[in-house]
Amino acid sequence: MGWLFLKVLFLGVTFLGCLYPLVDFCPSGETRGQKPNFVIILADDMGWGDLGANWAETKDTANLDKMAAEGMRFVDFHAAASTCSPSRASLLTGRLGLRNGVTHNFAVTSVGGLPLNETTLAEVLQQAGYVTGMIGKWHLGHHGPYHPNFRGFDYYFGIPYSHDMGCTDTPGYNHPPCPACPRGDRPSSLERDCYTDVALPLYENLNIVEQPVNLSSLAHKYAEKAIQFIQHASASGRPFLLYMGLAHMHVPISRTQLSAVLRGRRPYGAGLREMDSLVGQIKDKVDRTAKENTFLWFTGDNGPWAQKCELAGSVGPFTGLWQTHQGGSPAKQTTWEGGHRVPALAYWPGRVPVNVTSTALLSVLDIFPTVVALAGASLPQDRHFDGLDASEVLFGWSQTGHRVLFHPNSGAAGEFGALQTVRLGSYKAFYVSGGAKACDGDVGREQHHDPPLIFNLEDDVAEAVPLDRGSAEYQGVLPKVREILADVLLDIAGDNTSRADYTRHPSVTPCCNPHHVACRCQATGWTDFPTGRC
Questions:
Q1: Average of pLDDT values for 298-314?
Q2: Per-position b or e across 247-285, b if 16+ CB within 10 A of its CB
Q3: What span, in angstroms and rounded, lies between the C-alpha atoms of 7 and 23?
Q4: Which of 128, 160, 186, 534 could form a disulfide with 142 if both were Cys (CB 3.0 to 4.6 A apart)?
Q5: Does 533 score more than 50 pLDDT?
Q6: Nearest-angstrom CA–CA distance, 222 and 231
Q7: CA–CA separation, 337 vs 352, rounded Å?
Q8: For residues 223, 227, 229 and 235, what is the CA-based torsion angle, rounded to 10 degrees?
Q9: For residue 306, what is the DSSP state?
Q10: How many CB atoms lie within 10 A of CB 1?
Q11: H/E run at residue 424
Q12: What span, in angstroms and rounded, lies between the C-alpha atoms of 238 and 295?
């Protein structure tokens, strides 16, 4: 464990704030001025219809809509899974959960995380001379070597999992509502679906700097830290990667001053505006410091969480009508379009064409190989990837993305991670279907289909009526679907795959002060980045 001690010593900050985060911003002769910077912003539980540029009914995303007008908007872009941890693991590895081992979410008490033999995007860019930062939600393991600082990120500031996975003193809006953290000797409440025993922690590098987190000021802190990171990295001349996992639009939605100003607006709309403002601040900083050499990619981890009712977002036209007639929600945790089709924008002045809408079939899986290619780095050679280099699409040279895309089971039906939903061109085949928990509590039962249900999304984006199994169209598509599914399963069987450790133990729960109720501790001050002097 000597290596772990040394890394803790050099990366960490103390609770007293005595040490700065020791990020090396010093320029290198190999990298200075030669490689592009990357800012990847991942929204949480944001629906396709939550972006105004996608859906005219949405009026709360002025900055994102401006980014769409100044860059490229993708209308057929998909999360790699329909729930948190698997989607994020695929973003950072370019591989589906059956390959990288992350098929469902990690818990507060999870011992493991993203398997250590998986190579992350941050590790590849770090080796290529980049300074790397991660701000926000991680959700790929927080214990020991699974922490972001050990997965390629020089700097980390954020929450190790979803921000509903711990109590706070500022609970925000949730459905059902959750109580604040207990104080003193008051016993914790036992509300269903609420975490009440351990407060939500905020990390800076390896140390908890606030527990519980003040959710009302979290967006401001994230923006502040992101701006600082961009400023110091740009001033140093080293290329940088900044990956941001936003808390928005996952519940709880914070009760901010912005919410108070927007009287008469529903909390979700106020939350969208707060998120939009945060992204706008980051884009403005990029424009002021490294505009011509920074690629900004905005997208989401999965669709809206319908069981949260008025606190869930919009799927736009992707309403999954076949499933809603069967019962349950066709959004987050499902393989219906509302679960995995997400907003996506690319912005890079002078490189990405302005005000272009791309219909190319693309995925969060593509971020890894695309960024690696643009950075002039190399993909790891001992494994297969499910993403593709989308550079030609980004630069307006092509409208061709994936011919085939697989949507892994994400909780509503079937075995976690299994590939039982296949996209082939405009066709989509379901070997298993099911509805997640809806606002009214209804859950659509799991149903298996062999031969599969097949929809033509070109004519039926609402997935309302499957093709007639006896039709020539169906019979023409079915053998192709069967062949590509057999091929990918054979490829995975022969690949260098990983298996995540999903064991749990209470001893790994993040806790800055086990002697206080709910692990409560007070931050004594915020650290800043070093001046960058070498």
A1: 98
A2: bbbbbbbbbbebbeebeebebbbbbbbbbbbbbbbbbeb
A3: 12
A4: 160
A5: no
A6: 14
A7: 27
A8: 180
A9: G
A10: 7
A11: strand 419-424
A12: 15
> In whole angstroms, what is the distance from residue 48 CA to residue 375 CA?
29
Average pLDDT over the chain, rounded to whole? 91
| C-alpha distances out from residue 359 to 46, 344, 376, 399, 402, Å | 20, 11, 26, 7, 11
pLDDT at 202 over 80: yes
Please give the pLDDT value at position 431. Answer: 98
Q: Which two tokens stand for residue 374?
A: 């643009």
Catalytic residues: 84, 139
Which residues have C-beta within 8 Å of that of residue 175, sequence separation ≥ 6? 251, 307, 308, 309, 310, 311
Q: What angle do CA 70, 41, 383 make, to 5 degrees?
A: 115
Integer angstrom CA distances of residue 424 from 427, 460, 479, 484: 5, 15, 11, 9
Contact in structure between 396 and 353 (CB atoms under 8 Å): yes
Q: pLDDT, tens digit, for every residue of 101-131?
A: 999 999 999 999 999 999 999 999 999 999 9
Task: Quote the pLDDT of residue 531.
Answer: 37
Give Cβ neighbours of residue 252 (< 8 Å, ≥ 6 apart): 163, 164, 168, 171, 172, 173, 174, 178, 215
- Those residues with Cβ within 8 angstroms of residue 153's Cβ, 6 or more apart along the chain or in another chain: 122, 132, 133, 134, 243
Q: Where are the beta strands (DSSP E) in 166-301?
A: 202-204, 207-210, 240-245, 294-300
Terminal Cα distance for the chain, rounded: 30
pTM above 0.90, yes or no: yes
Element holding 452 (H helix, E strand): strand 444-456
Of 278, 271, 272, the C-alpha closest to 256 is 271
pLDDT digits 0-9 by tens, 35-84: 999 999 999 999 999 999 999 999 999 999 999 999 999 999 999 999 99
Q: How far apart are CA 450 and CA 194, in angstroms?
A: 39
